[in-house]
Amino acid sequence: MNNRPLFIPVILGTVRKGRASENIAKFVFEHVQKREGVETDLIDIRELNFPGDDAGEQIKDTRFSAACARADGLVLVVPEYNHGYPGMLKHVLDSNLKEYIHKAVGICGVSAGGFGGTRVIESLLPVMRELGLVTIFWDANFSGAQKLFDDAGNMNDRATHEKRLDKFLGELIWMSKVLRYGRENVSI
Amino acid sequence: MNKPKMICPDCGAEMNHHAMKIDYSVEDPALIDPVFGGVVQEAHTCPKCGRSDLRQAE
Fold first, then answer.
1. Whole-prediction pTM value?
2. Phi and psi for A74 in degrees, rounded to 5?
3. How many CB atoms lie within 10 A of CB A74?
4. DSSP assignment, residue B3?
5. Which of residues 9-68 of A touch B (CB under 8 A)?
6. Nearest to A8 by CA among A32, A44, A31
7. Per the CB < 8 Å rule, is B52 touching A186?
8. Amino acid B7: pLDDT
9. Checking DSSP bridges between strand A140-142 and strand B16-23, what pairing results, if any?
10. pLDDT-based confidence at A3, cuts 50/70/90?
11. Which helix (H) or strand (E) holds A107?
12. A113 Cβ contact list (under 8 Å, min separation 6)
């Protein structure tokens, strides 16, 4: 088995001003960083260079594609907008294909209401599949996003979210290891 | 007859073929597999460095 550390970047999937998902992405990133044998990066899609007059693999962003190519798994932190996913996130994700095939993905749903982005997670599942990504069993759900952090950036009910995230990351890391082994050693 | 193994352009190791994907964006009818309606691509990953690449299946 290859001993390279796993690389699991966290993707902040919205460009909106005032986005509540930013604090959540930082919270998730901080916890991925603590995992032994895992390297990570926080990728803010607002900082990427994607034109709006074309789409798909024609508009690859070098940094984003390189991160996805290196990745063994991805964490998507995705707000639910009108029961769907942000269009800009889809625009960004569509710029790669070979970089994703048979890699793990876990989705953190974020919502203003009480359902923790469950609907955006469900709506993303067929997209993940078509991109060749393999979704995990656990989700991370963040409800009441606008009130989840105080003005000083402290998370309310942190212990509960940490306990849930621990399960989420545990499975994502397991799936990332298994799929890396499969990609590199098990032939079709 | 099996195609030769893909060789990793980065480190020279033999790559592992682990997935197939149909590319429907190709317009040249000579390239399109009539059974699948597109070009069948093979996904290969290098066990040494982790690089992944696609190539057209036969």
1. 0.94
2. -130, 145
3. 25
4. P
5. none
6. A32
7. no
8. 97
9. unpaired
10. confident
11. strand A103-110
12. A143, A144
- In terms of residues, how long is chain B? 58
Residue B51 contacts A where some CB pair is shorter than 8 Å: yes
Residues B10-48 as b/e (b if ≥16 CB within 10 A, e otherwise) read eeebebbbbbebeeeeeeeeeebeeeeebbebbbbbbbb
Q: How many CB atoms lie within 10 A of CB A125?
A: 13
CA distances from A21 to A48, A77, A116, B12, B23 (A): 17, 7, 12, 42, 34
Distance CA(A14)–CA(A49), nearest Å, equals 14
Decide if A11 contacts A45 (C-beta within 8 A). Answer: yes
ipTM above 0.85?
yes
pLDDT tens for each residue of A51-97: 999 999 889 999 999 999 999 999 999 999 999 999 999 999 999 99
The per-residue pLDDT for A151 is 87
Assess B52–A contact: CB distance below 8 Å, yes or no: yes
Can you read off the two tokens belonging to residue B19? 């997935």
Whole-number Å distance between alpha carbons of A139 and A62 = 29
| Chain A residues within 8 A of B43 when measuring between CB atoms | 98, 101-102, 132
CB contact at 8 A, A14 and A25 = no
Interface test with B, best of A7, A101, A130, A131 (most B CBs within 10 A): A101
Instruction: Tell me how many degrees the CA angle A154-A28-A148 measures, rounded to the nearest 5.
Output: 35
Q: Which of B17, B48, B52 sits opposite A187 (nearest CB)?
A: B17
- Beta-carbon contacts of A120 under 8 Å, excluding residues fewer than 6 positions away, are A78, A79, A80, A81, A83, A84, A85, A107, A109, A110, A111
